[in-house]
Structure formats: C-alpha cells, structure tokens
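Budget justification aside, the reviewers requested a transparent look at the raw inputs and outputs of the sequence design task funded under Objective 1. We therefore reproduce one unedited record. The lines immediately below are the structure tokens for a 386-residue chain.
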C-alpha cells in the first residue's frame, strides 16, 4: 500500500455533521492495540479537505515567515522573544535542544490566535508556558510584515474550529470503545479553551555537513528532531518550500522528494507523509492518549532536510515553512485516564520506537494538571541547566 493511500482523508462536510467517522479515525489514530495489518498501520494523522477559507488563509500567512526570519537578529531577540514563557510566545531560535545540542536549524514564532492575554493574571503567573501573552511585531516598524497579525489570527482561528469539530468525533469513538469515558470530554475542552498556540516555523537551509555528502540522505530528523506533541490536538497547515535568498516559492523540481514530515506508524516504521496542498491535517498529542486510555496514541514525528547534491543542476538554498497550531485544554485540566485503565498500558499505547522521551517520565499519574505536565515537558527541552 502506498504512503499516499495510507493517509486517511475526510471531508469537512462529514466532520461538521453527525456522520460516523469512527472507522476512519481508528485507521488514522488507533493505538498499539489497533487490529491492522502492517501495511495499514495507523500513521497517527488525518487530513481534512474542503475546509472553508483555509487555503486562502494559508496562502496569506505562510509566506510571511520568510520576511520574519530575515529581520535583524537584534530586533528579533530584543523585541519579539519571551524567556519567561520558555520561549512559548514570540520568536525562538536556538533555544530548543536537538539531541544534546542547541537547535539552530529552524526558528519559530509562537502566538495565540484566540486571546492576546489568555486566562487570568494569576493563571498566567502560575503557568507561564501555557498562558503567555502575545508578542506581535510592530507592523509600522517592519512594514514587510503588513497584516501579519490579522493573517495569523485568521488561519489560527480556522484551525481551532476544525479541531473542535474533530474532537466531537474522537469523543464518539472513545465512548464506543472505552468503559467510563466521559461524554463530550474532549469536545468541551477544545471548544471552551483559550489555550491555542500557533507556531510559524522557518527551516533554514542546512549546512553541507548536515545535508550529507553527495546525494546521501541527511540525518533522518535533521530539520526537527523526533518528538511527540505534549498537548491535546495539533492542527497542521501543510508546508511550502522557498528560495531562502528571495522568499519565492519553489517548483517541485527544486524540492528533494525525500524531504519533509516523517511519522512513526504504530509498528514503529518511519513513513514520509505529504499533506495535500488543499488540506489541513491533525495529529494526536500525549494528553489525548491519556484521556482515551490509549485508544488513540500520540504521533512521533520529525522533519528531514533535503539531501545535498540530490539536484546537481541547482544552487538554490532551500528553506521550508510550516504552521502547526496546538489546541490544548486549560492548564488546570486534570489528566486522568478512564476508570479501569492501567497506567503502564496507556503510557505505552504508541509506537515502541525509542525515538521520543517516555511519557511516564513526565506524566505523574491521574490528576496531574495539564499545566504542570507541560511545564515538566518544556523544562526537558529548554532547561539547559537541568
């Protein structure tokens, strides 16, 4: 079975209706216990087509990443960075780990499309990584980012609304398969939340030592390391490739067909996933794995950079742009598995690949708040003194 045919695609009209999507969602998201042949093992991702206004919003916002990433470094660090939030608002470059080294292969701009100052002042103080205030660029100071804020909020708002609809279908699937699952648990959490984090990503061209020699493949996770998303549901706007010098979109002939998003399917195999240009996609985070008792499992994923010399006729420096939006519950939300589930089974419901930090090292068990879990997870990636 081809990778393209393994990607589960649903239509927005079905998502917005009472259509039963449990079969499609089990094919997309099912945990390790899912009964599927090895060539149909769930990829942990679902694509959604025909989302109203999505494609136009994507085409307005993603190209702005090039102008942002090429602003003066002093401006980015002094005006747009937020160390207090562990760099979960505004600009972040070289603050995360890639293995044991700082990650300079990509830069991120984080924003909340639902609220500029989410939660209460007390909650923002207690959970700085969950409820940071937005740090928008001043569009008068940097006119090349004209309409940046409006475009960011438009796309993030669309992606949030799609996640809310999907959450209702995940609830229905969990209700069928898990005794004691709470009705509308995920739907209510996603609908009521103020915690959403858009992440506009710019992947810089890789240096030759990172690309590999000749047409050899670089390290599998050379653009972003293997990881699980620690939250609830991650919506993806797909990607685009540009000339780093000009910001102009590149034709397919300039793009290494082996570069891009990779996921570990439920058998642990690494699979290259291409999200259709006209579709958004959604991945499962670790918190939903906990809430559903492992019926759905978090998606280990990474991003591979292009091979050096794969196209010997081109001298273009290739950069990649993407935009995930992490939709999560409020930080006081308790992370509890359904009654009767075993913690060890839930924590190990995903692929046993050894590629990502074990969930049980950060999840303290039933009742731990999402905010505490998130702080512990981010400390793992950002606390260089730990």
């Amino acid at each position: 079975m081809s990778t393209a045919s393994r990607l589960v695609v649903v239509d927005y009209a079905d998502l917005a209706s009472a259509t039963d999507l449990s079969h499609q969602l089990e094919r997309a998201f099912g945990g390790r216990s899912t009964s599927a042949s090895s060539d149909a093992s769930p990829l942990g991702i679902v694509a959604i087509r025909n989302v109203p206004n999505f494609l136009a919003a994507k085409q307005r916002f993603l190209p702005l990443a090039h102008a942002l990433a090429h602003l003066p470094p002093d401006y980015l660090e002094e005006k747009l960075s937020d160390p207090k939030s562990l760099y979960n608002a505004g600009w972040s470059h070289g603050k995360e780990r890639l293995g044991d080294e700082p990650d300079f292969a990509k830069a991120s701009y984080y924003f909340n499309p639902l609220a500029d100052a989410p939660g209460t002042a007390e909650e923002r103080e207690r959970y700085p990584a969950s409820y940071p205030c937005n740090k928008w660029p001043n569009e008068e100071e940097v006119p090349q980012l004209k309409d940046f804020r409006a475009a960011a909020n438009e796309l993030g708002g669309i992606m949030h609304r799609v996640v809310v609809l999907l959450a209702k279908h995940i609830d229905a699937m969990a209700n069928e398969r898990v005794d004691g699952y709470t009705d509308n648990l995920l739907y209510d959490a996603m609908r009521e939340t103020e915690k959403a984090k858009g992440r506009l990503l710019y992947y810089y061209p890789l240096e030759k030592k990172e690309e590999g020699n000749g047409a050899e493949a670089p390290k599998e996770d050379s653009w972003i390391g293997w990881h699980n998303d620690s939250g609830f549901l991650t919506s993806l706007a797909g990607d685009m490739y540009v000339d780093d010098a000009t910001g102009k979109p590149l034709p397919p002939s300039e793009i290494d067909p082996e570069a891009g998003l990779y996921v570990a399917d439920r058998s642990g195999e690494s699979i290259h996933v291409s999200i259709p240009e006209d579709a958004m996609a959604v991945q499962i985070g670790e918190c939903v794995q906990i809430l559903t008792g492992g019926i759905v499992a978090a998606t280990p994923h990474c991003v591979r950079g292009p091979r050096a010399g794969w196209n010997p006729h081109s001298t273009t420096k290739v950069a990649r742009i993407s935009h995930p939006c992490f939709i999560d519950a409020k930080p006081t939300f308790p992370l509890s598995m359904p009654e009767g589930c075993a913690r060890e089974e839930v924590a190990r419901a995903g692929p046993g690949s050894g590629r990502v930090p074990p969930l049980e090292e950060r999840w303290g068990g039933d009742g731990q708040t999402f905010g505490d879990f998130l702080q512990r997870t981010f400390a793992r990636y950002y606390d260089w003194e730990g």
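The first helix runs from residue 3 to 6. DSSP finds 13 helices and 14 strands in the chain. Computational costs for records of this kind are itemized in the attached budget.
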